[in-house]
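Homework help board

Subject: predicted structure for assignment chain

Our instructor gave us this sequence and asked us to write out the predicted structure in token form, then describe one feature. I got the tokens but I'm not sure how to describe them. Can anyone check?
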Amino acid sequence: MKVAVVGAGWAGLAAAVDLTRRGAAVTLYEAGRVAGGRGRSVNIDGRTLDNGQHLLLGAYRETLALMRSVGADPDALFERHPLQVVDRDGFRLALPSWPAPLNVAWGLLTAATVDLPEKLKTALWMQRVKWRGFRLRRDESVADWLDAAGQTGVLRRKLWEPLCLAALNTPAERASAQLFANVLRDSLGSPRRADTDLLLPRVPFGELLPEPACRWLAAHGATLRFGHRVRSVADTCVDGEAHDAVVIAVAPQHLQALLPEADACFEYEPIVTVYLQFSAKTRLDFPLLHLGGTTGAWAIDRGNGLFGCAISGHGDWDAWSDAALAASMETALGLGPAQSQQVIREKRATFSCRPEQARPNWRTPDPRLILAGDYTWADYPATLEGAVRSGRRAAATVLQSASLPA
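My token output:
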């Protein structure tokens, strides 16, 4: 069976690996020079940096399984920490390595700078949400959801709103409450303690999945065509080359150029990453720090004195210069002057996770043509786990359509 996969992001890689493993002759097309899509490494002035700060959780089971299947060992490539949310104002919520849900309950009850009545009120609210299976009566903004629940205190400012911005890349005022509830269901609300663990990369992002997956694909007979921007997909012909099936795994803003009938009308949110290099001995007490302030940024200690400060979503900082952004992050981090700075802007890093946002159907009228990408995995916001799951679903659908075991 001859299958084309268009796009070598995490969704396209997942589809290509599963198809190749089941004996399909796969051709992987990628417009860029490297794989990874929005989760890749880039070379800037001879230095390898990531195009954003992508945090993984233990709940990313399909992603971790895919990494293992292509020879990448998550235990060696990540630092694993029980989740903590910490800021410079003294707030700290730290989960112990206890079985769920005791770990979350203890973390909540011992959260610093939060009074006991607010903790109990929040615990009861979380329990009610869990009883309802994390299904909301209607989708609304996260801000409205929190208002209705009486979540207006310290935990809203220090926990729920920062987590919403980090997970959905969309501020609480315009983010989907149902998608945020889905994220909570599979993390803080999960019965598996390990699902809440924070996974911080020890290596550049390309070494986690894109590079090992490409090596695995090449070794198993797949054809990799980098620097090839696909211009047309007609039936199952890709730029005039015939295939038995096609998986389109491009970013949503590129979808309609290949598939005009596809309904992928999104607004987009940016991510700005400010890299600050300090002396190699400079470390944080915990490698993830919420900087807050006007930007709501998070700082990630990448080791050897390198810090990646991630600013999510639209805001006044869209118009700031790179120098102003770097100065703001340097001040918020509070570690003194940095030795060097580098700013990477992704203007359309993710789709905006609005309430009742329509998602394109991953199936098309032609059963031989399947869509993949985080925006097609309707249960999640724009996450790497959603991308991988959508790619594996696309591969399974192609195999089923060919009457092969999936």
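Reply (TA_rk): Your tokens look well-formed. For the description, you could write something like this. Residues 268-351 form one domain. That's the kind of observation they're looking for.
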